[in-house]
Amino acid sequence: MERITATYYIETPFSSESAATVLAGEQSSGTFVAVPGETEELKYRFAARVESIDHLETVSESAIPGSTSPSGTYHRARVTVSWSVENFGYNLPVLISTLQGNLYEIRQFTGLKLLDIQLPDSYADQYAGPAFGIPGCRQLTGVQGRPLIGTIIKPSIGLTPEQTAELVKTLAEAGIDFVKDDELMGSSANSPFGKRVDAVMDVINRHADRTGKKVMYAFNISGEIDEMLQRYEKVVNAGGTCAMVSLNSVGISATKKICDQRALAIHGHRNGWGMMTRHPLLGIEFPAYQKLWRLAGVDQIHVNGIQNKFWESDDSVVQSIEACLTPMFSGYSVLPVVSSGQWGGQAPETYRRTKTIDLLYMAGGGILAHPMGPSAGVIALQQAWQAAVNGLNVAEAAGKYPEFAKSVEKFGGK
Amino acid sequence: MERITATYYIETPFSSESAATVLAGEQSSGTFVAVPGETEELKYRFAARVESIDHLETVSESAIPGSTSPSGTYHRARVTVSWSVENFGYNLPVLISTLQGNLYEIRQFTGLKLLDIQLPDSYADQYAGPAFGIPGCRQLTGVQGRPLIGTIIKPSIGLTPEQTAELVKTLAEAGIDFVKDDELMGSSANSPFGKRVDAVMDVINRHADRTGKKVMYAFNISGEIDEMLQRYEKVVNAGGTCAMVSLNSVGISATKKICDQRALAIHGHRNGWGMMTRHPLLGIEFPAYQKLWRLAGVDQIHVNGIQNKFWESDDSVVQSIEACLTPMFSGYSVLPVVSSGQWGGQAPETYRRTKTIDLLYMAGGGILAHPMGPSAGVIALQQAWQAAVNGLNVAEAAGKYPEFAKSVEKFGGK
């Protein structure tokens, strides 16, 4: 029978072996005392199995509180556990409850992080995956041979539909590929969702009629399920190509329902992710997380960016981009969304470390606050990526491209 | 204009004032440089405001990594921030993205926990809240004057529908009020959902016909939205009174859709919660969390239990029970579900600290592994609660009640 495996980074005041056994028991057939009906046959079929334990460092202080070691030492290990697919069938929430459920609360752990998961091929038969992915998003935007260049409407919240559309007009004329609502902007008092769609798509459709280039706009449809479906339909009817969902805030069941419509590319925003990953020994790592959302059918997912304004290290960002670009089954392509304090200056380092142009490269203030205006901001980003692929560093790129040089003057000292 | 307020426990390498200002900016109209269109009028209307800052301790080591203090000190504070309802309208996911979004990733924080939220009264007009709550769950089960006594089907996974129904029969005959699927059990290879509902409800309906007492069984419908709605309907048609949803795994949008059906009491399982709260300076505290789920309409929510088998302290459990029992608007009643390693022995202390009988008191192994059998296990729990309300301690209760005395022998040494 096919099995699902999960790898965890754990810390325990007990032996790693005993802690791993508790994990497997709690997340399959266990409770705190043996009960009638728990036969050996049943255990063999449905019990989780500890597949391997790699012992790592021993420390003298626990990573998170809730349990004390009598010996004053805490053992860390990398543990792999497996479950039969018979336990779940094909049900993402039950899978999540098994992989990430009560085990964070178990006293045998003073640290637990889900690092990665491996799903059997039969999952590819059950889940259609992203409807567009990288090739589909390139096709919808007509961008080949370089990253998609995008921006976020700022201020995050407060602009009217007309002001938003005016900004989109400027950006479209400057050659932008992608624009998105901020995750804080759903339907505000002075920017009702439907009016925003009408105003923005009017600009985008006119621009497309004139130039043949349709800007992809990710409207934030995050909300209750019926409202999301209505707003999705509104975007489709207005000729839009993309909708944004705040994955953690909406949840996987409703997000999958949206992805299942398969008429719009789904921009997966991971806000709230910091809570789930920032502590090194609590939560989930991105390689595991992005697989769950690819199963649900998300086409684009946020990965932060090199030298971002947040806490995340470049190594972690690079790992996330690589995770997205690693094939899952045969396809399930997802476009990594690079953002957070980005401007052209990070392009050379991003390319040097990832060797990919399959990115949606987002700059917020980096475009809208360009000294020569938003149009020059877009041009500077395209220049930065051209330079990056050609192996130029920031100084060399600034010497060659005047718009990018202005970006360096304004943002380079940060 | 009405405002929503949120209180955070923060730690920062900078001054608490500047960190709070960054929080408010990032979660409303801010980005990393000033942009055109960000007028003073717009800021005033949509900007988040720092309402208060209570300075707390200064420490020399950061709670979570990702930012280093040049001075080597980290300041902690309790900060209250507010937003106009105009920013969100009434949209739970956008509210969550605002309260708990990118801010966990901000470099200005080396710790951030959402402690509580206050919602204006207009939310009560928009959200119907729990369809049953405490009075509704009492009415459905016919239990007055004591806690509802419940148990979980164990082994968590592996029993057939017939074995499950046989166990439910034993428990029903013993006088149990409530039984639930484990969160790991959705629809497994040897216990398809529909067959389990048929087998279990046949037992429950026959018992109800004979005795007038209908056991509440929480079938785990967690899954994709359409499947959840089908399974919900199946439970309704079979005469069931309750469905269980793994809140964090399903997400709030789909959970609200389920709650909106208002035909079954919704048992809200919080598995995965440990990741969100176990670190003292990362995530969210239960008083804030349970308000969001009451808005969504959950009727019952897990709070762990006194002397539980998990990491959580009794103080934290008591705080959670009190949060559930604090009225929200005028109603929105939610039944706290006490579980995790519970048997009758914790009843006196639970009552001493909370002075309430408005609980669903769950014992897993505590009932099914009772030395005199499950029937005696149920009786022992009822005895324990009678004793608790009468002010008896464990020893006194054991002296008076033989079934409870046997529980003490078996579980009391743990």
From TrEMBL, chains A, B:
GO terms for molecular function: magnesium ion binding; ribulose-bisphosphate carboxylase activity. Residues 5-123 form the Ribulose bisphosphate carboxylase large subunit ferrodoxin-like N-terminal domain. Residues 134-411 form the Ribulose bisphosphate carboxylase large subunit C-terminal domain. PROSITE patterns: RUBISCO_LARGE. It comes from the Bacteria. Its cofactor is Mg(2+). SUPFAM superfamilies: RuBisCo, C-terminal domain (SSF51649), RuBisCO, large subunit, small (N-terminal) domain (SSF54966). Keywords: Magnesium, Metal-binding. InterPro entries: RuBisCO, RuBisCo_large_chain_AS, RuBisCO_lsu_C, RuBisCO_lsu_C_sf, RuBisCO_lsu_fd_N, RuBisCO_lsu_N_sf. CDD domains: RLP_NonPhot (cd08207). One of its GO terms (biological process) is carbon fixation. Belongs to the RuBisCO large chain family. This is Ribulose-bisphosphate carboxylase large subunit family protein. It comes from Spirosoma validum.
